[in-house]
Amino acid sequence: MSASRSADGVVDGANLRRPTLTQVAAMAGVSLKTASRALNDEPNVAEATGRRVREAADVLGYRLNGIARELRRGATSALVGLISGDLTNPFYSAVASGIERELRQHGLQLVTANNDEDAELERALVDAFLERRVRALLVVPSGVRHEYLAVESNHGVPFVFLDRPPDGPTADAVLIDNIGGARAAGEHLLRGGHRRIALITDLARMAPQRGRHDGFVQAMAAGGNEEWRPYLRTDVHDVRRAEETVRELLALDPAPTALFTTNNRLTTGALRALRGHPGNPALIGFDDFDLADVIGTTVVAHDPVAMGREAARLAYERISGFAGPARTVTIGTTLIPRGSGERPPA
Prior knowledge:
InterPro entries: HTH_LacI, Lambda_DNA-bd_dom_sf, Peripla_BP/Lac1_sug-bd_dom, Peripla_BP_I. The chain is an alpha/beta fold. The chain has helices at about 20-30, 30-40, 45-60, 65-70, 90-105, 120-130, 145-155, 180-190, 205-220, 240-250, 265-275, 290-295, 305-320; strands spanning about 80-85, 110-115, 135-140, 160, 170-175, 195-200, 230-235, 260, 280-285, 300, 330, 335.
């Protein structure tokens, strides 16, 4: 079978049709009601008839909609939704892993969707998950206002926010100590004798990035350093742009002697730009990443799996009846010196 997709991404049902119960009944030579009873293991269906119906279903590839069936019987869904940024980012995939491990212990299943940092898409995904009657919804928000979620929360679907606090509704949240981690990175570079320190951040509208910016600025202010300010670069959102930005910074006269990148993608871009560069400035990145220990990259580390577990725990407690005030869990950070952040000023 072939499927076509319209400009808005919707699959054309005329070209892709799932086999129906009517087709199963026709192939088995039974009534629609008998086919339904056989596939649902209801009584008073002859063994031979039931076998014939099941064989027809196998041939056609027909499968019962288990979720719809359970909901019709009055049961609740076992699904919990996660709306996050790009799951190809190791940070988000680790968060999802933590959530899934915790939910599995309680007989719940995780379903995920990517909001592409698009507030309108995020809202559409929230609506789609709620239509499927998820037991809870975990959100890494892309938008800056979330009042619309408060109405749904009052209808019994608990929300938990991850990485970024809700702006509007009162809800549980699991956050990283962004200010403390960034302040530690700034202090570390100052202790190493650096003054011309470049700060490279992702989208300034995102709360974690604002926190990392503010923590770094606090360190610079406490150290009496103003020489970093010409090297501030914000809204650097991907690896390619980070690489370009660092190359531009290194071409300045005078160039920065140290770099602080505020997430793993920006650190990756910086490492590409530094490859073979004679100045070899110091580098600290926020977020640990695979092989950072192998290549000697100093990072501000935290535990995204623990973040996922905590979010799932909060959600399960709400599902189980907890009705107390909103809670915020903060995941701590640790600066791990591995060599790149300890290089002295050139």
